[in-house]
Each structure stands twice: as C-alpha cells, then as structure tokens.
Design brief:
Layout (H helix, E strand, L loop, with lengths): L1 H16 L16 H18 L1 H6 L14 H19 L8 H24 L1 H4 L7 H9 L5 H12 L2 H11 L5 H14 L1 H12 L5 H27 L12 H12 L5 H31 L8 H13 L8 H18 L11 E5 L10 E4 L10 E5 L7 H10 L2 H11 L4 H10 L3 H5 L3 H17 L7 H28 L3 H11 L4 H13 L6 H20 L5 H9 L6 H8 L14
Parallel strand pairs: 1-3
Antiparallel strand pairs: 2-3
Helix pairs in contact: 1-2, 2-4, 4-5, 5-13, 7-11, 9-12, 10-12, 11-12, 14-15, 14-22, 16-18, 18-21, 21-22, 21-25, 22-23, 22-25, 23-24, 25-27
The protein binds zinc ion (2 copies).
Length: about 600
C-alpha cells in the first residue's frame, strides 16, 4: 500500500521534473499490480491533456478549453520530455503481470509516446507542413458541440483566442521550404474557416445574456483573431519557396509512420504486396460475375473481349439505378431499419437499442468534407448521440449531382449504410465506448475501426444480403472494395515509388472503375496526406486473417456472432493485440495454451 502511494507520488512528480529510474523506492515490485497501472493511466492522461489542450477538447475533456499554446521549440521539447518520461514509467511495469486489457493499454500508450518522439524529432512536419498549424477546428468544436452552457463555451472561446496572433507568428517562424501542396491547402483551409470568428461567434453571442461591455471585448478579440488568420493565409500565398519539400513522404519515413499509425504486424511493403494480389483476385471474380450477368442486361449483344471493359459496362449500367437528389437523405433513412432487421435475422451481432442512431443533414461547419460520415460520442461523453451526417445536394449542378448519385447508386448506397452504420462504424463505436478503458477510446486505432467497417460489408454479403440481386450486389461491392484496395496501392506507390499523376488516375479510373472527378479528388488527397489511406485495407486483411485462424482454432465451436462480439469487446485496439488475446486459450477446462 505504501509502495503504491509512493509510486503515485513519484509519477505526479515525474510529470514536472522527471523521475529517477533507479530511485530507491521504485523497484520492479511496484509494477506488478493492475491497480497501480490504473492509477498511472489516469495521471498519464491528465498529463497528456495538460500539454495538449486542443486534443483534450476534441476527445471531450474540457478542463483546458480556454488554453492555446504557441507552437514553439519549448512546447515541443516539453512534449518530447513527457514522452520519454512516460516510456520510462511504462518500463517499470512488468507487462506479463498485467491483465489482458491493461496489456493492450500498455502497448497503445507506449506506441503513442514513441510516435510523438518520432514525429517531433524525425518526421518534423512542423517544419514543412503549413496545414499542421490550424486552430480553427477546436474553436468550431467549442462553438458547435453542446457539452456545456453556451455562455461558458463562449467565454472559453474568448480566453483561448488570446494567443491566436502569437500562434501564427510562431508558425511562420517555424516553417522552412514547406510542401507546395500543403501550403495551398493550408491557405484554403484558413480562408474557408475564418467565418467562425467573423460571423458564427458573433451570432452565438447574441443568443446569450453576457453583458454588452463584455461582448464588445469578445468581439474585438474575434476581429483580431480573424485578421491573424487571414494574414497567415496571405503569408502562405505570397511565400517565396524556391526549394519546396516534395509532398512524397519517402520510403523510410513512410515505413515508420505506417508502423506507428497503423500498428500492423506487417510492414507497409507487405500490405502493398497483398493489396496488389487482392486487386488481381477481384478483377477475376468481377469478370466471372459480369459474364453471367451480361445476358440479363444486354441480351444477345456482343460482350467486350477486354474483361476490364466488360466489367465497366455492367457497373455503368447498374449505376443508373439511383435516388433522386431530393430523396438522398430519406433513401439513407429507409436503409437503417432494413439493416437492423437483417443483422437480427441472421444473428450476426447484438445491437444495442438504447443508443439510437440519428440520421441528420450534415451540419454547416462540417460541410464539404464527405458525402456521408458518422459522428459518434467521444470517450468522455458516452451518452451522447450517434449521428449519421448526410451531405445535402442542394445547389449542385445537375451533372455533379448525377455523377455523385451514380457513385452512391441503389447498390452502393446500401453498402455505404452498412459501412457507416449497421453493422459498421456505428455498431463498432458503441462497443468501443463500452470497453472499460479510456486509453483504448482515446488512442483508437484507425485501421481497426476502418477495417471493421470494410469487414462488415463483406460479412453482410456472405450472409445473403442483397436478396434476389445478390450477383449485382456482389459486383458492386467488389467495385466499392477496390477503392480500399487501390487506396493502399496508390498511397504506397505515390509516397515511396514516385508514382506520377497520370498513372495514378489510370489506376483509379481503369482498374478501380472510378469516375474522373473521383479519381482527381483522390489524387489531391494523396498529395496532402499519407498512410491514412492504408487503414481500410490493412484492417480488413488483418480481421479476415484473424477470423480464419480463430475458426480453425475453435473448430465445431466456432460461431460468427461469438467471433464478432468478442472481437468488438476489446475496444478500438489494433488487430494484432486483439489477435494476441483471442488466440490465447483460457478455458476453465484447462486445455492449455494453443499458442499463436
Ligand atoms: Zn441518373
Ligand atoms: Zn469508414
């Protein structure tokens, strides 16, 4: 007991000055206890939020909402020191003595701290990525999320604005030969988001009874802030940049970033190779289905001899079945009860009726990001609603709307709803919020989350989803799935193998059957991001491999629903650690450890 208390005191202290590793009171004995680990986790998170107020706000921890740190060398040094201290503190625990859940937390915390060190000291995006400096999304969050009374949120908003001019002055000082693509992206994002300070903040103030004199001060500061944001955008646009860094990350940084972000057992190169094979397999299967379906849609008309052309023709024909622009949201709303009923009738996974899903028009401040997305309650706000945000097509040209609706046609619209909602993201994140660990929610693994959504699409199809149009549904799913597969091929090829724009567009349009506009949008995305596009296919691959191994292990006792629920019960943990837990037998009968 005393030892635990000492340990705790040391940890609190260590956040301030660092704790000597070989201090007399801190032997290996102290790490053997899950209770001590839990105490440590709490102080770890508290320390993390204190150094990262914006991150804290975004996960629903609002103690530091009023703070904005100037992104200078000092704060980066503090962050690196924090990471080193935590890696050291973690090393005091004997991981094998911890519970299964805490072992996963341990891995996640260690990975996160190593990633922070790596990104600040090796990747150094703070030198070359102007879009890494952006205060707007946190301010938008404070303004738009109803977690506290409006006047309280606005006062925090006001306090937090204090440092905005200093923040952007420092950003200008830190940037050296930034990536040109990221420079224009940052300028665009800042000009696009400045309305929060110029208009939305003032509109919200009117709804409060904050005294007029105080409101005046608040509005003045919002003006100064907006000016600073516009000045940053102008500075970026005027920047003389003769030797910009390439937007391609490069092989070494890429492998490291993949290791920390994706947390796969495989390397990026291995996943790339697997995706290339997967693409070949999908093309073979798609050609088979297309040959079978041809007479149904084209009668006796001659089939194209080129199989990619044949597939493209069928996809094109099937895409013509789609909703009207005004009915897009209601078409999505209608899917939800159907999917719920299907999941229940096939007994795929237990759904929690106490956490309803609300389909809503995409809120203005999110507009333009994606056609459809999920907003789920954060780890500190588990009782919040889950929203399925649907972008409105109002004001679109008829060509643009048509192209979009063909992309989200009657087939793929159903797949979209599986992916985003049931049993995809919405279901997974409800399970995730039930996992009794903040660490797993806060450091949620994107590859596991996206992988589950992709996996759930195929699982629905394998269980007969699609009714009497199953071949059509399967063909359209393969097309949809090719997007995930080609995301990986594209990202890796562009960032490590110098793939050129025209080859990228050819890959996406000819081999993944995408519209020109979609392919161009993807090129833009791959030139301002890296590794994130790998998460879909990597997570999917790992879950499928795990399920195969699990099936083999359980033999007759294997049940799909049991696999799904067990898999989801660990929270948004990297698949490799879920695998470690699921493949270790712990039956009461004592059948021992089957290993692997
Ligand atoms: Zn049409
Ligand atoms: Zn997704």
């Amino acid at each position: 007991m005393i030892k635990k208390l000492l340990f705790f005191a040391c940890l609190i202290f260590s956040l301030l000055i660092g704790c000597k590793k070989d201090g007399s009171s801190t032997g290996p004995l102290q790490g053997k206890d899950d209770a001590a680990f839990t105490i440590y986790e709490n102080s770890f998170l508290e320390g993390l939020w204190k150094l990262n107020p914006d991150w804290a706000t975004s996960v629903g921890y609002h103690k530091y909402d009023s703070l904005l740190f100037v992104p200078d060398d000092k704060i980066r040094d503090k962050m690196v020191t924090f990471a080193k201290v935590q890696i050291d503190s973690l090393s005091r625990f004997e991981i094998t003595q911890l519970s299964e859940g805490n072992r996963m937390d341990y891995h996640l915390m260690q990975n996160q701290m190593e990633q922070i060190e790596w990104s600040l000291q090796q990747q150094k995006a703070w030198q070359w990525d102007p879009s890494s400096y952006n205060v707007i999304s946190t301010f938008a969050y404070i303004l738009n999320e109803h977690y506290a009374p409006l006047s309280k949120r606005l006062r925090n908003f006001y306090q937090k604005m204090t440092n905005i001019p200093a923040y952007y002055k420092e950003a200008e000082k830190q940037l050296r030969n930034p990536v040109a693509e990221l420079t224009s992206l940052a300028a665009e994002q800042h000009l696009g988001g400045v309305g929060i300070f110029e208009k939305d903040f003032a509109d919200s103030l009117k709804k409060t009874n904050i005294p007029a004199a105080e409101q005046k001060l608040m509005l003045d500061r919002a003006k100064v802030s907006a000016d600073a944001i516009r000045a940053y955008a102008a500075w970026l646009k005027a920047l003389k940049n003769d030797k910009p860094r390439s937007f391609r990350l490069g092989k070494d940084l890429y492998e490291s970033k993949f290791k920390y972000n994706i947390q796969s057992e495989s390397t990026a190169q291995q996943i790339f190779n697997s995706a290339v094979e997967r693409k070949k397999y999908l093309h073979r299967e798609m050609a088979k289905i297309s040959k079978k379906l041809w007479p149904k849609y084209f009668g006796s008309k001659a089939m194209p001899s080129d199989s990619l052309e044949l597939i493209a023709k069928l996809i094109d024909t099937l895409s013509a079945k789609h909703a009207e622009p005004g009915d897009f949201q209601s078409a999505i709303e209608k899917q939800i009860p159907k999917l719920t009923a299907f999941v229940k009738s096939k007994d795929l996974v237990t759904l929690d009726p106490s956490k309803p899903l609300v389909v809503r028009k995409e809120p203005g401040y999110m507009a333009g990001v994606a056609g459809a997305s999920m907003s789920s309650p954060g780890p500190y706000d588990k009782d919040g609603n889950s929203y399925f945000n649907v972008g409105s097509l109002a004001g679109w040209s008829s060509e643009k709307a048509e192209s979009y609706l063909r992309e989200y046609n009657n087939y793929t619209l159903q797949i979209l709803c599986i992916h985003e909602a049931i049993p995809g993201h919405y279901v997974q994140l409800i399970y995730s919020n039930k996992a009794p660990s903040l660490i797993k929610s806060v450091f949620g693994n994107g590859a596991m989350v996206e992988g589950w959504a992709v996996y759930s699409e195929e699982m629905m199809l394998d269980n007969g989803f699609g009714g009497d149009e199953q071949p059509e549904m399967r063909l359209m799913w393969y097309k949809w799935h090719l997007r995930s597969v080609c995301n990986t091929i594209l990202d890796y090829s562009v960032h490590t193998q110098n793939m050129q724009q025209q080859d990228a567009i050819k890959l996406l349009t000819r081999e993944a059957f995408q519209q020109q506009a979609e392919a161009e949008g993807k090129w833009k995305r791959v030139s301002v991001s890296s590794v994130q596009l790998d998460s879909y296919y990597t997570g999917y691959r790992e879950i499928m491999d795990l399920r195969e191994a699990y099936k083999k292990k359980l033999g007759d006792k294997y049940k799909l629903k049991e696999f799904n629920e067990k898999f989801l019960s660990y929270g948004s943990t990297p698949v490799r650690y879920i695998k470690e837990a699921m493949m270790t037998v712990k039956t009461g009968g004592g059948s021992g450890n089957s290993g692997q």
